[in-house]
């Protein structure tokens, strides 16, 4: 097994949600290679479950893939915010439902090959109607689906978002083995 050591990190781009770096890596104290690295400051997601057992999902346009996706509500941490608070805030902002409590479900590194983004995923079956409060430039349609319907969408390729796939499958496992 080769020994790898980062010997240099150069900031290539500083953004509001991410920073992009060029890393120089020393391999076996012998040769160098470079990697692109995207630094993300953390995010949270939540699976809101209504009183009928349906999951409240958000459908939104994602520029990176130039398509609409069906996802669990999620967003980046605000400065000084803990992950559970972030998940509950994002749920209310995106869906118009406020979780009164939430439970941790799973943590997911979304793209380990080039990014350190970690999304902590929660779920809540204790939600109350509130008011949707979308960010500027955010256009979201709210949908309700059964867990079984969403699992079918995963296996048919209609849901491909990593946090959503991981979260829904983890929830199915948790409920099945409760």
UniProtKB/TrEMBL annotation:
GO terms for molecular function: hydrolase activity. PROSITE patterns: NUDIX (PS51462). Residues 39-167 form the Nudix hydrolase domain. Its cofactor is Mg(2+). InterPro entries: NUDIX_hydrolase-like_dom_sf, NUDIX_hydrolase_dom. SUPFAM superfamilies: Nudix. Keywords: Hydrolase. GO terms for biological process: nucleoside phosphate metabolic process; ribose phosphate metabolic process. The keyword Hydrolase applies. The keyword Hydrolase applies. PANTHER family: NUDIX HYDROLASE DOMAIN-CONTAINING PROTEIN, UDP/ADP-SUGAR PYROPHOSPHATASE. This is Nudix hydrolase domain-containing protein. It comes from Herbinix hemicellulosilytica.
